[in-house]
Amino acid sequence: MPLYRIKQFYWSITVKLDEEDIAFIHQYLNEEERKLFSRLIEYEQKHSINVARDVIKECKESRIEANRLIKAALLHDIGKITNRLNVVDKSVIVLLDKFTRGKLKKAKGIKKIDIYYNHGAKGVEVLKPYGYDDRLLYLIKNHHNNLITGDIELEILRKCDNNN
Fold first, then answer.
1. Where are the domains of the chain?
2. What is the pTM assigned to this prediction?
3. pLDDT at site 50
4. Which of 24, 36, 73, 128 is deepest in the core (most CB within 10 A)?
5. pLDDT digits (tens, 9 = 90+) for 47-102
């Protein structure tokens, strides 16, 4: 796990979107969604693109319609636009979460910790005014909720997010 986190940190500070990434975004997001998406930090954009690409593969293997899940994957971290976490902030929170075995979650008054744990719910609040269906909002809100089982779409989104 620690080696993976070091690799993830390095990737976060060196990542750049390429032409394929831009084309991918244009294929699945409309202009309004692209404006929202562009408000994410670039490494979060790349992460979401990678999650969406993995979703496509998982949906093919599971023979599941992918369109809603692709959009959910691209927008799953959109709540992070409400209070940005830079790479160092995120790294510190991830390490503290690990060392405190999740007790860091109790520090609700700290905005950066709040966004780390609650960006799914905040994403729903960002997206509600745009008229998204309840199912897409549910997927985004619960993409880190490991207590929900038996929902194949949510499990695919969660798996792809965790792998990226």
1. 2-84+120-162
2. 0.90
3. 97
4. 73
5. 999 999 999 999 999 999 999 999 999 999 999 999 988 888 888 898 888 889 88
